[in-house]
Amino acid sequence: MKKKNLITNNGITICDSIVMSVKNKRPNFRKAEAIFIAVLGFVSVLMSFFGMFDFNYDRFKVAAAAVLFSIGYITLILMNKKSAFWVMASSLIVFGLAAFKFMNKITDGFKFVYNIIYRDSFHTDINYYKYLKPAMEEESVTILFIFAIWLISFIIYFFTIYRPNPILPLLVTFPILEVGLYNGIEIPIFWGITTIAYWLALLAMSSIDIGEYSGGTSGFVRKDNLFFPKRQMKLKVTEKCGMFIMSTILIITVLTVSVVSITNYKRSDELNKKRKDISEAFNEFTLEDLAASISRITSAFGFTIKYENNKLGNNDHVKYKDVTDLEVTVDHKHNAAIYLKDNTGCRYDDNEWLDLKDSAYDEDIFDDFSSTGMFPQDFPCMFGKLLKPDAQELQITIDSKVKKDRTFSTYGIDNIGGLSYNRDKQATSINQEEKKFSYKFMPIDIDFTASSLGDETRNVYSVSGISDEHWRDMIADFCEKNNAYNYDDYFTVDHEIIVDSDLMYSNPYMIMAQLLESKYKDFVYDNYLQIPDNKDMDEVYAAYSDILSKAKGAHSAVDKVAVLDELRLRMQEDTKYTLSPGKTPSNRDFINYFLIENKKGYCIHYATSGVILARMAGIPARYATGYVITADDFNDGNLQEDGSYAIDVQDNRSHAWVEIYLDGYGWVPFEFTAGYSCRAVKVSPTPVTPADPNGSTEPVETPTNIQTQTSLVPIPLTTTKNNTTVTANTTKSHGGAVGKIGSDDNKKGGGFTIPKWVKVIIFIAVLLIITAAVIILRRMLIINNRKKEIETGSSSDRIGNMYDYTEKLLENLRLSNEEHNYMDFAKRVEQHIGGTFIEQGSFESFMKLALHCRFGKKSPDTDELKECEKMVSELSQKIYDNSGFFKKLWIKFVDALV
User: N or C: which end of the chain has fewer CB within 10 A?
Assistant: First the structure.
């Protein structure tokens, strides 16, 4: 090839044909290498996705579409003409128009695909989307996949071959694999690894030549009398770097699998357990339960971030760590279950148990509770003594080992002072500094209690007949306030317990208790029969209507318990108890999905459904969580020298149950969970695989509830603040290991319900923020590198770096030195932009200076450097200012030139 001498300096001849010599020696396979990387990435992504699920679609049509789109886009890219770019861009418009035309098919296809993913992910036969026509599945799914492949092929081939950039390909291909990984579906190993290799190769291709954009280490390498630009050499190895990375990853993978197979290497049990915990934590990760998911992941790695979620049905399955949560001491043996409650759910809304609204507690009955020092939590013990005068009380101490700040109490607590009351829900020991709770309580036998409560009977009392001045004045004030006098100082009390009036006069606090219970009963029926008014509840009612219709004639406690027993038995016949029921779909009601569709669940499912069914039957009910002790725990192994029993309550004893209100008596526990009853509670005798303590217990028979009797002892209740504390505000939601409860008026932690459309907006916003952050960080890296290369180093190197940056700027004006004739290129630049974007003649001077620095021994002085920097700065700013809006964004954030 003829050489043209441009400059002679110190005997060195500079040839502008120097790059051509490289082409003769080293064939350029960049396009072929880029195509190979893109095709392998495209195929890997598709095979990874299709390998995770068994979809019903026309495989030939989908494969043909993948081949045709690949051939089409690769051919356009190889044309290397500007018109090809616009053809590719136009294909997106065609894609949009075609997608709009087939939108209904695409939408149906998405629903069919999502149903398959949902069933495989949650191991269920239930479809997320209902009312789809099976005959339309294959066609709809095929159309969906063709359009998806169309879009994916454009993104992969354009941003891998035409303009390497990892951002959009990663944003599109990663979620395709994450659909399975997110739900614990095993991905095909080979295709999964090749997909990761593609990502890394693309990242290398787009970042290995950052020096080109920022000046890098540009310069020339001399060989004899020929000089080769370093930048051009670097560009020729970008695809080779991608190929090297892909092949290296695949080779390492094959070698690793081979070595493991040959040596029979096995991980230790401890390492396997840790890996399993981490794997389960990641598999259970959900965006809907983001904070709790993060908490599970951090716990798997050995540190804990506290978080509670009140939503029901978020757990796919329940496992336990078999750790002791409570250490309980009972003074003597008891032959029935003891419930240790830590929370009460009052109102069901949007798959969540909430407290009553604060306005509900504004009723004056709560003022009466505070002034008298009697609360509904006291009723079962007080009225129990009327029913069983010689009933035996137990002394229980609960030492909490759970990390969360939770309080525990039991039913039938005797108010002997030192109690703190949370409205009508729970009474706990005032001294909670050491997380120990001590109570004297009367065990509850629901069968005996129900049979002892009769129909409501009117009892007549006279204030003047009460000898105790304290209680006489208190009762008189109550009657005056509530207009309870019938005539003179006589008042009536309607109550279900019939007792001798002399006994009541000698124990006037019992009269006060009956007055309060009679008034509180109105509050109970006003607030604890609430049911969501929607189609889901109508379907539940219809499924149990034959039993619920009987409830209309159930007036006595015995009749009401009989109705509840029928509901419990029907529920247990129609459903299956399991610790792996799967998640409740976000578009389903928790109760309806459990009772009508899935029919699998554990205690929170049974208890939540039981509360609603009880309310449908007209029986006030609430949801309760905590732990349960059984009669089997009172064994010789737990027997102490003093005759008491020390019981370690493990996390697998966490439980949820129903509280029902028996008129004239108060709140009592009632079991709906399959394998349980009010007379016998069952728990798992075998350890369960460690994990989060969220769930119920496995069934094992325990003996029937048996109680002994003691005599009635009048215990005057006092209102002094030293003995009783009233909690007027809603307590913080703790939530047991099962079924968590939130506050509606002031939801905190996981109790805040986010509407679905807000979740979508948040997800899109987070995705955009992450994308923007990546783009901005990349831009900052390139700009900082460029600034460093231009402002530091030797003067000659700085001029060379400025020239490389200038060449990249000029490419945006469609001016490139394709023939590598530098002075001709300088003249062409002057003709096009001299006097507009730069001063006339400044680029030619800059070119001569750059050539002198590279090929001669001259070093530019300070003034020359400043002039060059000024010219480059003005050029970049003029190019940016004269560009359109979208072009400005591309220059600034994609090319990172300004």
Answer: N
